[in-house]
Amino acid sequence: MHIQPKKKFMNLMKFKALWLSLAILLSVNNSFSQEQDPVLFTIDNKPVYTSEFVRITTKNLQQQDDKPNLQESLDIFINFKLKVKAAEEEGIDTTKVFIRDIAQYRRQLAKPYLQDQKVTEDLLDEAWKRSQEEFRASHILVGVVRDAPPGDTLRAYQRAAKIKERLDAGEDFAQLAMEISDDPSAKTNGGDLGFHAVFDFIYLFENAVFNTPVGGISEPFRTEFGYHIITVAERIPTRGQIKIAVILKSSMYGMSEEEHAIIKSEIDEIYKKLVSGEKFEDLAMKYSDDKNSGSRGGQLPWFGVGNKPQDFQEAAFSIKNIGDYSEPVLTQMGWYIFKLLEHKIPVREKMTTIFERKIARDADRSAKSKSVITERLKEEYNFKVNQNNYEEFYRLVDPSIFGARWDPNPALQKNDILFSLDGKNFPQSDFAKYLALNMRETREVPIAEYLDKQFSEFIETTILTYEETQLEKKYPEFRNLFLEFRDGNLLFEVMDKRVWTKASKDTVGLQDFYKSNKANYMWGERLNGTIIYCKAESDLDIMAEEMHKAVKKYSKTDTSAKPLEEVLGEVAEKYSGSFELSSGPFSKNENPISDNVKWKKGVSDLMKDDNSRIFVWTRSILESMPKTIREARGQITADYQDFLDKEWIKELRQKHSVVIDENVLQNIKL
User: Fold this and answer.
1) Do 597 and 604 touch, CB atoms closer than 8 A?
2) Burial (CB count <10 Å: 0-12, 13-18, 19+), residue 320
């Protein structure tokens, strides 16, 4: 493996990505079951099974054009296992950074196993279907906090119900919103939220929107903010995402009419310049008050509806054709001129990963999946609660817990069985610890209601945590993915330490290696000279002939007296032309111009190109000679790395006992 030190970081990323991509390809057929998985070889009497060799080697072969034979593949695999063993012996797997990285990867790998795939697929289907539309909705809010006392919650609901009665009787939604909604913005917008799309609101609100027909009014429904009543004004096909450029002349609240008029005249003057043919990008850089986008010619990142203020996004989405720009538009932030740069409608394949992340971050959506898988695992693990021992908490917990002042010590002393899971017993003290750690100031409710809710959350957390510890046992593909990523990281770290970084820092070893292998780093015969490119709008041939003569004459004089650039510059100035120089030495097949002339001392004939004339001044022909360590450092370093790797493998082979079962090997079909 030849890896140059200057590319170390890139190699780290590629190496880890390779192991991850190989792991993802785990669906190869494995012809060995757990019961029929013979030991292929041992390292210091520790068995390595055939299935691991077949699995990893098959995936590696899928990445290669030239397929090594069985013995070569086995040698590569044994070397891999020896290096991983060396990494473990050096304690790399016990470092904080390694443990952190592996734990992070395991958590990511475990996520799909801790979700109900059917629920997730249904949520993805629902999100995709909803993403095909944009909606414009209005709402009236009756605010009540999540942990409000029952009396406050009831009064809020009764108030919302009366508002619904008034709306059903025909009162105007916007007028009522301005008068009585607890959303402060309703005083000016009549509850109108503008156009939005899927994921713009919390899931409960979004469900109400998509379950309410256009023109209809919903029943009051509860969110963490209180009770809402909504009406849906419009649903339109999604407008997708756009990329625009803007020119802004900002205005601020409290400006006088005269100041507003000055800003309006400034944006109008910019618009006139735009219409007269000046470039939008230049005007944005020069005049826009948005200096961040102005430095990029006014360009903004991609966005869709719901990501910008309503007046801004509606003006931007009103432009129909790529390259068109708007007249000045007044928004809350000031006067804008918009230019449409690009427009796209996302496709499902590209949105699936984005939707999956959003669903995972959405507490209400992800709760659906957790609930389903928890119930399934309860049955699988024969979950049973000792009801008497649970109900003892009704006595152990008192109302002080609502002020986060509850003393958990009496409950922490209780060690009778609270519930059993997969044949394991969990004591009452476990739930007491959970209550103590999650205690916070909250509204007071009946103790039984509070405990039942906390116990349900505790059980879900406990079951999912336990399930995560069982993944290696239950799912061979999970175990293999995790172990391969772990070993791949160990391999990278130990290779970096033993080979890649060592080769870049061991200057003495690198120099000794160069001296011993100098014959491998030779220059062939080279042309030591200069290529002259002549260019001119007119009189090109005349100028080139004069430059050609000047170089011939110059080559026979004391060249140290006057630079060649000065000699050619005098000719170029005379014809309003120009020239370029490219100096060697040039090796064979390095430059088509130097390859196309006779390799002898002197000035070549003129050669014609479409827009230039070219000739070569050959000062000398350099004979074959060794490259200096500076000239060949990249190749020398790569070869030194390869040398260190091979020497290290020899050392590992001598240090450890590797015993191969040849009968098993011969029966393997890759």
Assistant:
1) yes
2) exposed
Type of residue numbered 569 = G
Query: pLDDT (tens digit, 9 = 90+) per residue, 288-318?
Result: 999 999 999 999 999 999 888 889 999 999 9
Kindly state the percentage of the chain with pLDDT values over 90. Answer: 82
Residue 226 one-letter amino acid: G
- In the three-class reduction of DSSP (H, G, I as helix; E, B as strand; rest coil), residue 615 is classed as strand
Per-residue HEC secondary structure of 597-610 comes to CCCCCEECCCEECC
Q: Which of 191, 203, 273, 264 is nearest to 232 (CA)?
A: 191
In DSSP terms, 417 is beta-bridged to 427
Cα dihedral across residues 346, 349, 352, 354: positive or negative: negative
pTM, whole model, 2 decimals?
0.68
Does residue 127 fall inside a structural domain? no
Query: Are residues 558 and 650 part of one domain?
Result: no
Examine residue 115 and state whether it is found in any structural domain, yes or no.
no
Q: Which two tokens stand for residue 445?
A: 């409710």
Assess whether pLDDT exceeds 60 at residue 35.
Answer: no
The type of residue at 83 is K
DSSP 477: H
Domain contains 370: no
Cis peptide before 585 (omega within 30 of 0): yes
Q: What is the pLDDT of residues 184-243, one digit of tens each?
A: 999 999 999 999 999 999 999 999 999 999 999 999 999 999 999 999 999 999 999 999
Residue range 350-371: mean pLDDT, rounded: 90
Q: What is the CA radius of gyration of the chain?
A: 38
Phi, psi of 329 (to 5 degrees): -125, 130
Q: Where does a domain end: 325, 344, 363?
A: 344
Distance, CA of 166 to CA of 607 (rounded, Å):
92
With beta carbons less than 8 A apart as the criterion, state whether 246 and 259 touch: no
Structure tokens at 321: 């054709």
Does one domain contain both 517 and 528? no
Quick check: 384 pLDDT over 90?
yes
Residues 138 and 282 both lie in one domain: no
For the segment 91-135, what is each residue's pLDDT rounded down to a tens digit?
999 999 999 999 999 999 998 899 898 999 999 999 999 999 999
Domain count within the chain: 5
- What DSSP string describes 102-117? HHHHHHHHHGGGGS-H
- Where residue 585 falls (left for φ over 0; alpha for ψ -120 to 50; beta otherwise) is beta
Dig out the tokens for 132 from the structure: 């095909």
Average per-residue pLDDT for the chain: 91
Which amino acid is located at 328 in the chain?
P
- 581 and 648 in a single domain? The answer is no
- Cα–Cα distances in angstroms (integers) from residue 430 to residues 246, 389, 404, 453, in the given order: 58, 12, 18, 16
Domain that holds residue 159: 133-237
**Residues with Cβ within 8 Å of residue 584, at least 6 apart in sequence:** 526, 527, 528, 529, 530, 531, 591, 594
Residues 645 and 510 both lie in one domain: yes
Please state, in angstroms and rounded to a whole number, the distance separating the CA atoms of residues 55 and 281: 55
pLDDT at 66: 67
| Same domain for 214 and 175 | yes
395 shares its domain with 429: yes
Is 179 found in the same domain as 145? yes
Contact 332, 248 (CB under 8 A): no
Please tell me what DSSP assigns to residue 419.
Answer: E
Q: What pLDDT score was predicted for residue 252?
A: 79
